[in-house]
Design goal:
Rossmann fold; 2 domains; 5-stranded parallel sheet; 16 helices; 13% strand; binds 5-phosphoarabinonic acid
Length: 435
């Protein structure tokens, strides 16, 4: 089942030639590469069938770890960078409630580490961990990435001093490669609960593996429903070879056509602050997959109406180089009405008994119309609600479309050679042995 609704009427008029056979043929060829593994990077296509292939024993082990740890902790620290934390954060922030970090939930509050080298951040984290019971997931596919390795050394030292070595080992989960990497060796030596990241799934395509599922389950969210959503979208993406009805092919074609028409920047827009990290995850997925060999659409994201009061000016009036993909949510989970006010000094009684969502909806419609008249092509993708199932659908949809779009661009979607440049400079400056 596909619950994503595409609205292209404010996009197509800007993309003259979009239904050009050339894009459709290119999308078909690219999809075929994802399906038959005949494209570059074909040893990293494991994500394609993973929602079907995932062993139920993995899901059971995750549920058991969550049931064992959640009741005795206030904080769950997720250590990872890039694909090793963004997907989990996207799902958790979308679903856990806006003020979960303020203790407005009976589940552990998930905090993040290993995604920064800010000293002040780690000092603040240590203060938090001094004051609260906690457990940790350390996540690194390679098991050698510097940022999470440094964070884990600090947190491991802290947790062992706080609880003693034996109890600390019970509170640490390691998620890493099945065969190699220093993290794997540490986890085996110390006897941590361990999960393997499949060889053929790269970091930014790994949210539906234990990389994302462990933190998401720890936050009290339904990982089975997330996987169900992904399975539903997999059937659609794999089963439909028509580029104008397969949503992943359609999206990939639209992106490529927009770029060819002189719009090399895509802004993924949402109207809910809970979706900020979905935008961060999406930026990594598309930025690392497509931005290479001097090619690729620059992925950017914004949350409206917040950013209408900052980036809104540029979008409306600046250089014409971006197209927008508005991720629209039909129904909020809860209801907040505008109250009546006797004095009406703020003049807002005309909104009485309207919901905030009614206003947000008009803001969205007004924005799309305004940007469109400012010559910004706007694609709208609507989901009925934000839930584990719809997020599972969206994740799989964006992943499949990313593979298709990157093959249409002519690059290998699954490597990231450009990420190495800063690392070798940093290692040289730090005097790393052997560099
Ligand atoms: O998508 C990717 O492969 C990267 O963003 C990685 O996820 C990121 O560099 C972290 O790597 P690792 O999980 O090996 O520590």
């Amino acid at each position: 089942m596909n619950e994503l609704v595409f609205r292209t009427e404010r996009l197509l008029p800007h993309l003259e030639g979009f239904d050009n056979q050339q894009f459709a043929e290119s999308a078909k060829t690219a999809r075929r590469k994802v399906l038959d593994g005949s494209g570059a990077g074909n040893d990293f296509l494991g994500w394609r069938d993973w929602p079907e292939k995932i062993d139920t024993k993995i899901v059971e082990k995750i549920a058991a770890d969550a049931a064992r740890l959640a009741p005795k902790i206030k904080i769950f620290v997720v250590i990872g960078i890039g694909g090793s934390y963004l997907g989990a954060r996207a799902v958790i922030e979308a679903l856990q409630g806006s003020f979960a970090t303020m203790g407005m939930t009976n589940r552990p509050v998930v905090v993040y580490a290993g995604h920064t080298l800010s000293e002040d951040y780690y000092a603040d984290l240590m203060n938090l961990l001094d004051a609260n019971d906690y457990a940790v997931a350390v996540i690194s596919k390679s098991g050698t990435t510097t940022e999470p390795a440094v964070a884990f050394r600090i947190v491991k030292d802290h947790i062992e001093r706080k609880y003693g070595k034996t109890e600390a080992a019970r509170r640490i989960i390691a998620i890493t490669d099945a065969r190699k990497g220093t993290l794997r060796q540490i986890a085996l030596d110390e006897g941590y609960s361990m999960y393997e990241i499949p060889d053929d799934i790269g970091g930014r395509f790994s949210v539906l593996t234990p990389v994302g599922l462990v933190p998401i389950a720890m936050a009290g969210l339904d990982i089975n429903a997330l996987l169900d959503g992904a399975r539903e979208m997999r059937e659609v993406c794999l089963g439909d070879e028509n580029p104008s009805t397969n949503p992943a092919m359609l999206y990939a074609m639209i992106r490529q056509a927009a770029c060819a028409k002189g719009y090399p920047v895509e802004m993924l827009v949402n109207f809910m602050p809970q979706l900020v990290y979905l935008g961060e995850w999406w930026k990594q997925l598309y930025g690392e997959s497509e931005g290479k060999d001097g090619l690729g659409i620059l992925p950017h994201s914004a949350t409206f109406t917040t950013d209408l009061h900052s980036m809104g000016q540029y979008i409306q009036d600046g250089q014409r180089l971006l197209f927008e993909t508005v991720l629209s949510v039909a129904k909020p989970k809860r209801h907040v009405e505008i109250p009546y006010d006797e004095k009406n000094l703020d003049g807002l009684n005309y909104l009485q008994h309207k919901s905030i969502n009614d206003i947000n909806h008009c803001a969205q419609e007004g924005t799309v119309m305004a940007h469109n008249s400012g010559r910004v092509p706007v694609l709208e993708i609507e989901v009925p609600e934000v839930s584990e199932r719809t997020l599972g659908q969206l994740i799989y949809f964006f992943e499949f479309a990313c593979g298709v779009s990157a093959y249409m661009t002519g690059v290998n979607p699954f490597n990231q050679p450009g990420v190495e440049a800063y690392k070798s400079n940093m290692f040289r400056l730090l005097g790393k042995p052997g560099v």
